[in-house]
Amino acid sequence: MSAPARFVYFSGPERKRFVLQRSEYLDSSMDLRGSSYIQHHDFHPLPTWTRDAETIIRISGADAKLPSGDFADDLMVIQEYTGFLRHFMIFPSSPGKLTWDVIGAALIVYDLFAISMQVFSPPETGLTIFMQWFILIYWTLNMLVSCMVGYIDKGIFVMVPHKVVLHYLKTWFLIDIIVVGSDWIFSLSESGNSAESSVKLLRSLRLFRMVRLIRILRLRKTMESVSDLVDSEYISIIVSIFKMLALLMIVNHVIACFWFWIGDSGEGGWIDAHNLMDDNWEYQYATSLHWAITQFTPASMHIQPQNLNERLFALGVVVFALVGFSYVVGSISGSLAQLRGMTENRARQFWELRRHLRKNRVSITLSARIQKYVEHVLESQEENVPAEDIKLLTLLSEQLRSELECEICMPHFSVHPLFARLCVVSRVTIHRLANNAIQKKQLARTDSLFIPGETATHMYIVVYGRLIYSRIDSKGTEHKELVDKGEDWISEPVLWTSSWLHLGLLISMTESELMVLDPTHFGRVVNLNPDAAALAATYVVNFIKWINSVQRDSLSDIWQGENVGPRVAGFMELDEHQFKSAKSLAAKLMNWQK
C-alpha cells in the first residue's frame, strides 16, 4: 500500500526532505497497522492518579477562610474597594493612565519652551491662546484624575478611594493647587483687562508661571513607562541617542532665554551693543540660541559679554558646558559604540558559523537552513530577551518567579479546560507547574516533533508558528490537520497513561515555539495540593474511560479545542456516585469542625 508523496507546503530541498520523512512515516504506519496494538487499546491511568474515591473528595478551597485581622492586609497584592466608586478607580499602570501621562509630558515640554520664550515678547496667536486654555483645563482635570489613580505602597496596589485621596494630599496636591490656582487667576485677569498697560503688566507676571516647570519631576517616571514599551534593544539605543540630543537642545534653549533676559535687563548690554533691540523676536531668539550653542563647542561668534553680569553668566555657562556637554557627548558616543558593537558581534558570529559549516563540508541545503534559523532566533531574542539573560530576575523569590512564569505560560495553556479550571481551584498549583514542569522547545522549518510508533514523553502547546499533523488509519487513508496556537493541544494522554504511542507525524511548517509539559513533574506538583489532585483524579477517570471507548482510527495526537473542549470540560464534573460520596464526606467534616 502506498500514497503519493506530494505536499503543497514546501518546495525545493525542503520538499525532498519532507518526502523522505513522509516515506519513513508511511512505512512505519504500515508496520503499525499490521500489529494487534493498532486494532485494540486498553489504556490504564498512571499510578499517580489511582486512588480511592473518598480520598479524592475535598471541600472546595473556595470555602477556606482567609486570615483575619492585621495579617490580612499583609497578604494582599491589591487593596480594592467594593463600593460604587470602584468603577471610577484607575489602575496606575493602565494604558489609559499612560496615555494621559504622555499628554501631560508633552504639555510640560511645551510649557518649558513657551514660558521661557516670554522674555522675547512674542505676539499672541490663536494657537497660543488655545494652548493656554487647554493646558489650564488639562491640569485642572488632572487634579481630579489624581484622586482616582491608585498607587503602590510596599509592593501592594492600593485602590481604596479615601487612601488614594489622602496619598495625593500628601504628595502633589499642594504644588498643583498653587500652580493651577495662580494660572486661573492670571488667565481670568488677562481676559478681563484690555488696557495696554494692564496687558504689559500681566505679560511680565507671566514669568511667575515658571513654577509650572516643577512638573518636570513627573517626566522621568513617564519616560520610563514609555521606554518600557520599546521591545527592541536596537530601537532603545536609537531612542536614547535622540533623548540626549533633545536634552542638549532644551538646555541650550533655556540658556539662550536667560542670556537674552540678562542683556535686556539694563542699558549697556550686549543687545544694545549690537543694535538688536529693534529686530524682530525671531532674530533675537536665533542670535541668543547661536551664542548658547557656541559655549558648548569650540565655535565662536561676534556676540560677547558687555558688562559684569553678562561676563559672570558667560563664565558660569562655560563651566557648566565643560561638565554637561561632556556628559551628553559621552552618552551619545557610548550608545553609538554599543550599536557598532552589536553589529560587529553579530557579523562575527555569522562569519564563525559559516566557516564552521564550510570546514566540516556541510551541504549547501543544510547550511542555508541553519543560517536562516539562527537568524530567526536572533531576531526573536532581540524582541524578547531570554529570562536567563536578565540578571535582575535572579533576585526574585521563588514564589514571585513562579507567579511570573505563570503569567507567561498560562495564557497559552488556558486553551485546555483543565488548566483553566486549575487556575480557579488552586492558583499555587499553576504557579508551581509554570516554574517546575513547563519548558520551551524551538522548532525550525520542516523539523519533526515526533513520528508514529514513538513512545510519547511530553504534552505540547503551540506558542507561535504553525505545524501540520498527518496520520494514517487502518484502511490506509491519510488524515491531515493544521496545528495552530490558541486552538489545539498535543499528546495530552501522556499526562494520564504510560502506554500512549504517537499515532502520526508532526512537522513544523514555519519556525515555531512550543511549551513542553513534563508528565512526571505534572503529577508530582498537582498531587501536592489536595484540591488540584481531586480535580485531576476526577478528570483522569473520565478521560481514560472516554479514550478507551473511542475507535482506534478516531484517536489522534492532536486535540482540537473547538471539537473536544466542551467534552473534556465535562470530565471534571462528579458523577452521581462521586457526588454522594462528596456530600457524605463534607457532612462528616462539617460535624467534626463543630
From TrEMBL:
Residues 99-340 form the Ion transport domain. This is Cyclic nucleotide-binding domain-containing protein. It is a multi-pass membrane protein. GO terms for molecular function: voltage-gated potassium channel activity. The keyword Transmembrane helix applies. Pfam families: Ion_trans. The keyword Coiled coil does not apply. It is found in: Membrane.
